[in-house]
Amino acid sequence: MELDAFAKINLSLDVLRKREDGYHELEMIMQQISLKDKVILEEIDSGIKLTCSNEKVPTDSRNLVYKAYDLLKEKFDIDKGVKIHIEKNIPIAAGLAGGSSDAAQTLIGLNQMWDLKLSKKELMEIGLNIGADVPYCILGSTALACGIGEKLTPLEGFKGKIILLAKADIDVSTAYVYGNLDIKAIKNHPNTKELINAIKTDDLDFLAKNMKNVLENVTIKKHPIIGHIKKEMIDCGALGSLMSGSGPSVFGIFDNFKRAEKCMDILKKNMDQVYLIKTI
């Protein structure tokens, strides 16, 4: 069984408050993009054999795919095994939910392979035990995510928009970003209602110019290159540019393929991971 695990970007990311349990209350607009991993599942007698084309990805219990297998196996007392191979194309630790998407497709695939007959809603509930982004990766398309990302409202599709995505060769710690975020000091919060309306009315220009990610306040301060990539994209004709998640990935929304292509060529002179893709 071969499944497509799509990456996501945040068209907006707002942090409302820090909760008593230590998590942050979020309000985000999530969007799937055509950049994808392949998750290949094959039934074996017992256990799990996990492999990945990227040697930096752990293939033991640290991997969310491993957790997805473990969770379903325990919950439904399954005695079958599975061999899973991840063909990795989504940059790792990049704010693109690659690991969560792989886990989401593993749940979907095993549900089918083991004939568990779980609904999408049930899979999303199980997915939350693996990671906050997993339910969204099961839902897909465009969605408003609240809470820690688990309260999802599907939005009208925002398909076929030209996206240029770039990941600088740096590592960003999500824990560091949230730990250093001063919520009271945030002056510019995204207007989520207006952005949702722009998606509904297909107002690409308004959306691109008004996207905001409050985590940029922390990440760009520590890694100025993220700000430089955003500026480069705007200078190349992007309608707007934003960091995805806690970084370091940056995307630009374009309304002209040739301009996006030219910008990709410029960025590729200084970084390897640049992708010209579309929203799905």
Label the structural class. Answer: alpha+beta
CATH topology of the largest domain: Ribosomal Protein S5, domain 2
If helices are DSSP runs of H or I spanning 4 or more residues, what is the number of helices?
Answer: 10
Q: CATH first level of the largest domain: which class? A: Alpha Beta
**What is the CATH-assigned architecture of the largest domain?**
2-Layer Sandwich
Biggest sheet architecture: 6 strands, mixed
DSSP strand (E) fraction?
25-35%
Could you tell me the radius of gyration in angstroms? 19 Å
Order of helices and strands: EEEHEHHHEEEHHHHHEEHE
Straight-line N-to-C gap? 22 Å
Shape: globular
| Whole-number mean pLDDT | 96
Helix percentage range: 25-40%
**Count of spatially separate domains:** 2
The stretches of 5 or more residues where confidence is low (pLDDT under 50) are none
Question: Would you report the number of β strands?
Answer: 10
Key traits:
33% helix; 10 strands; Alpha-Beta Plaits; 280 residues; Ribosomal Protein S5, domain 2; 4-stranded antiparallel sheet; alpha+beta; 6-stranded mixed sheet; globular; 10 helices; 2 domains
Please provide a written account of the structure:
- The two termini are 22 Å apart.
- Strands 1, 2, 3, 4, 5 and 6 form a six-stranded mixed beta sheet that branches.
- Helix 2 (98-113) crosses helix 3 (120-127) and helix 6 (192-200) packs antiparallel against helix 7.
- By secondary structure, the chain is α+β, with helices and mostly antiparallel strands.
- It has helices spanning 64-75, 98-113, 120-127, 134-139, 174-179, 192-200, 204-210, 216-222, 225-235, 257-267; strands at residues 2-18, 24-44, 48-52, 81-87, 142-147, 151-154, 162-167, 240-243, 249-254, 273-278.
- The protein has ten helices and ten strands.
- The chain has two domains: 2-154, Ribosomal Protein S5, domain 2 (2-Layer Sandwich); 162-278, Alpha-Beta Plaits, CATH 3.30.70.
